[in-house]
Amino acid sequence: MTNTDIQQVTIDGETRLLAIIGDPIGQVKSPRTLNPRFAAAGMDTVLLPVHVKPELFDITVQGLMAVGNLDGIIVTVPYKARILPLIDEVLPMAAQVGAANALRRQADGRWCGDMFDGRGLVRGLRNAKINPAVRRVMLIGAGGAGSAVAVALADAGVSVLTIFDVDSNKADALARRVAVAFPACSVRTGPVDIPGHDTLINATPIGMAPGDGPPAPLDGLTSEVLVIDVIIKPDTTPFLDAARATGCRTFNGRLMLDGQAEELAAFFGAGERR
Amino acid sequence: MTNTDIQQVTIDGETRLLAIIGDPIGQVKSPRTLNPRFAAAGMDTVLLPVHVKPELFDITVQGLMAVGNLDGIIVTVPYKARILPLIDEVLPMAAQVGAANALRRQADGRWCGDMFDGRGLVRGLRNAKINPAVRRVMLIGAGGAGSAVAVALADAGVSVLTIFDVDSNKADALARRVAVAFPACSVRTGPVDIPGHDTLINATPIGMAPGDGPPAPLDGLTSEVLVIDVIIKPDTTPFLDAARATGCRTFNGRLMLDGQAEELAAFFGAGERR
After folding, report:
1. What is the ipTM of this complex?
2. Total number of domains in chain A
3. Per-residue pLDDT tens digits for A15-36
4. Which one of A46, A50, A67 has the shortest CB-CB distance to B51?
5. For the CA atoms of B151, B156, B161, B163, what is the dihedral angle to 10 degrees?
6. What is the CATH number of the domain that holds B222?
7. What single DSSP character describes residue A243?
8. Using a CB-CB distance cutoff of 8 angstroms, which residues of chain A are in contact with residue B8?
9. Inter-chain touch B67–A61, beta carbons under 8 Å
10. With an 8 Å Cβ cutoff, are B60 and A66 in contact?
11. Which of A10, A52, A59 is the closest to B7 by Cβ?
């Protein structure tokens, strides 16, 4: 497969469709990332960017779901929570996170929805030969990304999960949802307190904007701690810079993004679920 | 452009969408025909097959029309008449035919619809250096294809148009619509009576099925008559065979189909309207 082929797909009357919906839509990279995976798997399927306007959300999505040769929908900002009422069967992780980012039509015609944002991070860790089970995680951020990461990490068997958010109500609510779904995980909320943890994750957008510092003071950080940022752009952040200066192993948002591409491809039939 | 490139398109977040809707949809060739034209015109636009189920027609088409980055819809069987009530502005030829086969979103957000089936034949004739103006046409068939052909030929200035259909009510109704819209065209209905005409067109499906004969007796056919069949498959028909045996110049349905591809490409911004 040449570099050019990676961006190209073939469309004819038999082609099956997948849509990625969002507002705006121009920034999405999934068609370029996933279409070559479908082609490589021998699937005559293309993923298309579909701009859904907020004021037309229901009519547009219901129309897409009625298209006979449309097999699935990937959901991006700002619709991951808003999509839930349109899904016939919300799978457990999507229900626990309170959001879905992928839907597919089942053989019986009903639509099921699942959540892969956090699973992408888990898969990325496993790809890097890091077993998430029994890790002790300090998570910064309980918003959309933080919720998905928290649930997926608890599902993957982390032993300790401490959640911090500047909005302590959000952190508390997320911790309660995780505690109910995963009784074996010791989950609590509190300030960023690194000692006692072996993994530190930033799931806030702090670090994207010029002039941003780390999302929290990093007192007590030692080189044994694995440090992960979910931010993709820029490549590195003050948070990761500080961790590298301390000698930590670090990953930026690519770890989660690449893992998620594998999860989504598998959900739509190209590749293995894990 | 290599043979492989002709079938390939590039899709990313900025790509604009066009849909061809029908039931069934697997047989449509327009994506393979038109996508290379859009690419050649420098447009980041792809035409997709969209299977619209009859029982979900309104919800599906209204959903498509709400998609922010969907610029147009091509309509095929069985929806060319059913689409009309969903169009904000039905352009004159579509109104005269009573059917539309292409819609696009205007700058003001309203959808206009037009009919290119018959214009495809007119363009095909012009591409073959045949001027449709002042021709004397005997048209067999007043159904969907026949209606589109009749209106487009009248619009192109044929001087005589005689319409035959086994259902004489259909022929009469079509003749009335043409007469009202194009007073300069001498339109009438009657049996297939070739003398007095220089052009003979089959716009019925008779000739597609094995064992079919010509759609009508061809008494009086002479080699000066131009003979056109709208049938694409098979390549030739008993009607065209008889015409060739008489020494006539003949065209099969490719003339109309290729002309229509040019018309549709131009309607969506790739190429010249004529």
Report:
1. 0.90
2. 2
3. 999 999 999 999 999 999 999 9
4. A67
5. -30
6. 3.40.50.720
7. H
8. 8-10
9. no
10. yes
11. A10
